[in-house]
Design a protein that fits this description.
CATH topology of chain B: Non-ribosomal Peptide Synthetase Peptidyl Carrier Protein, Chain A
Distance between the termini of chain B: 11 Å
CATH class of chain B: Mainly Alpha
Largest sheet of chain B: none
Number of helices of chain A: 12
Largest interface: A-B, 15 and 12 residues
Helix content of chain B: 55-70%
Number of domains of chain A: 2
Oligomer: heterodimer
Radius of gyration of chain A: 21 Å
Strand content of chain B: under 5%
Structural class of chain B: mainly alpha
Order of helices and strands of chain B: HHHH
Number of strands of chain A: 16
CATH class of the largest domain in chain A: Alpha Beta
Helix content of chain A: 25-40%
Order of helices and strands of chain A: EEHEEHHEHHHEHEHEHEHEHEHEEEEE
CATH architecture of the largest domain in chain A: 3-Layer(aba) Sandwich
CATH superfamily of chain B: ACP-like
CATH architecture of chain B: Orthogonal Bundle
Number of helices of chain B: 4
Largest sheet of chain A: 12 strands, mixed
């Protein structure tokens, strides 16, 4: 039953992760590359970029949709949805969660998207303007819009409970997970959540270039957040889909792998001009502070920060100011990383992948790096993880994300072995032997 | 206008190239229904649009939805082309 008020006796934990990233398909390949500092950024190959100001991106090479979904479905959907379906399948497998064994209304899908099925849509729009309306295919009606990936995952796995899509650009990857957490706290047992994006096409790239925030440096090292040579960011495709479950539901079904809990969340809006720099870091600061308050933790408990890392001096300065304002003296001591430097900014997919990085850091005791940040800007005052990767005991992680248009979001995650013990379950077979909580 | 008749092979080609079936998913039996193939209403619209574009026939929505089997679609297209050719 869904209740309108979140219940504190329910806890939203992440039990499965699926990753499609420019530096690795599947969590094994991706994490090995990420902790080795291996970047997936290169010159765009999906089309000829020579007439574009931005020519480098993080593309997912070797991704074949038919390896994951039926050919008929590939004809009806965009590359973005192919990635979403593939990553969702990986997350369910990772969690050993079999949807067919559960009440359809106890499961939902809440993803983020920032450009929808733009490549599919471009082809149909070209048909419209070059040949006429009768040449637009029927599947345009279901392939391009933001909710398409949520809908296709819902249909494929028979998940008929709370479903939705969040559109808040780079903040979306956190906003979707927070929305999924809220659904779980309100009574839905299982939510497939996160985000992926496939924005490396001519039309999509043109839209991104209009923001003025992309780097036009044609080098794989162009994206250098918090560096004195920051020139903007490099776009990327892919992301992560995660399985969120209520802790008790996960225990009841015998889940053996729980990465961590979504402990807190805060979101604000700059309330300023949608595409210019806000006058101060007030709203980003509030987002972080709200997330800490929601998590009921002190700044000193944060073991690592996965920063937004916009890659432009003004935006990076604001984030640095926000971290200092929200975390106090701890901001200078806590390790800060931007693994997006190895993938490019994946819009709705970026922050979801950062959450995956945070959870893997907890599990493996290693923080991946921000690569190519060789010269941190003067007065940066943050401990950027620049070496290959750093061993660390990570119990609690903060992930920060911003979205074009003024969106600020922050999410706090905690390693499950460090979560307070839940009430002793009544009945059910021997959960305690399979879980280490 | 001299043109070859629209055949089973032609409609199978559309089902593979435009609807996304693999060749072995389309049975040889022309009396197979679109429903048996697993085509939903949107797939029928895609077929309708493709037939209109590639074979220059006009297929009103009610006629498209009334086609049950591959044979009915084949016969419909050939009939429409005869009418158009005679006009």
């Amino acid at each position: 039953m869904i209740t309108s008020v979140p219940r504190r006796d329910r806890r939203a934990v992440i039990t499965g992760i699926g990753v499609i990233a420019p530096n690795g398909i599947g969590t094994d390949a991706w994490w090995a590359a990420t902790t080795a500092g291996t970047s997936g950024i290169g010159r765009i190959t999906r089309f000829d970029p020579s007439r574009y100001a931005t020519q480098f991106a993080g593309e997912v090479d070797g991704f074949e949709a038919v390896d994951y979904i039926a050919r008929r479905l590939t004809m009806q959907t965009d590359r973005w949805t192919w990635m979403g379906l593939a990553a969702a399948g990986m997350a369910l497998d990772d969690a050993s969660f079999r949807p067919a064994e559960h009440d359809p209304y106890s499961m939902g899908v809440i993803t983020a998207s920032s450009s929808g099925g733009n490549e599919f849509g471009q082809v149909e729009i070209q048909a419209l303007w070059s040949k006429g309306a009768s040449h637009v295919g029927a599947y345009q009606s279901i392939a391009w819009f933001y909710a398409a990936t949520t809908g296709q995952i819902s249909i494929r796995y028979g998940m008929k409970g709370a479903c939705g899509v969040v559109v808040s650009e780079g903040a979306g990857g956190l906003d979707a997970l927070a929305h999924g957490r809220r659904a779980v706290l309100r009574g839905v047992d299982t939510i497939v959540s996160g985000g992926v994006e496939a924005p490396i096409g001519p039309y999509a790239l043109t839209c991104q270039m209009a923001t003025g925030r992309l780097s036009s440096i044609a080098e794989a090292t162009a994206y250098r957040p918090f560096d004195e040579r920051a020139t903007g960011y490099v776009p990327g495709e892919g992301g992560a889909i995660l399985l969120i479950e209520d802790l008790e539901s996960a225990r009841r079904r015998g889940a053996t792998s729980i990465y961590g809990e979504i402990l807190g969340y805060g979101a604000t809006h700059d309330g300023h001009h949608p595409w210019s720099l806000p006058p101060d870091a007030r709203q980003l600061t509030r987002a972080v502070a709200l997330a800490l308050r929601d998590a009921r933790i002190e700044p000193e408990e944060i073991d690592v920060v996965f920063a937004d890392g916009a890659g432009s001096r003004g935006w990076d300065d604001l984030e640095e100011q926000a971290l200092h304002a929200a975390l106090g003296a701890h901001a200078a001591n806590v390790p800060v990383s931007v693994p997006k430097t190895m993938t490019g900014r994946m819009y709705a997919g970026g922050a979801s992948l950062d959450v995956a990085s945070a959870l893997f850091s907890m599990r493996h005791g290693v923080i991946p790096p921000a690569v190519h940040v060789d010269r941190p800007a003067a007065g940066c005052g943050l401990d950027i993880v620049r070496e290959a990767s750093r061993a660390a005991d990570v119990r609690t992680a903060l992930v920060v994300a911003r979205g074009y248009g003024g969106f600020n979001s922050a999410l706090v995650l905690r390693r499950t072995s460090d979560c307070p013990s839940p009430p002793t379950p009544t009945g059910g077979p021997d959960e305690s032997s399979t879980l280490h909580l | 206008m001299n043109q070859a008749p629209f055949t089973y092979d032609d409609i199978k080609h559309i089902l593979v190239e435009r609807i996304g079936f693999t060749a072995d998913e389309v049975p040889d039996d022309v009396d197979t229904s679109f429903r048996e193939l697993g085509m939903d209403s949107l797939a029928v619209v895609e077929l309708q649009l493709t037939l209109q574009q590639d074979y220059h026939v006009t297929i009103p929505d009610e006629d498209a939805h009334a086609m049950v089997t591959l044979r009915e679609a084949i016969d419909y297209v050939n009939r429409q082309r005869l009418v158009a050719g005679a006009a």
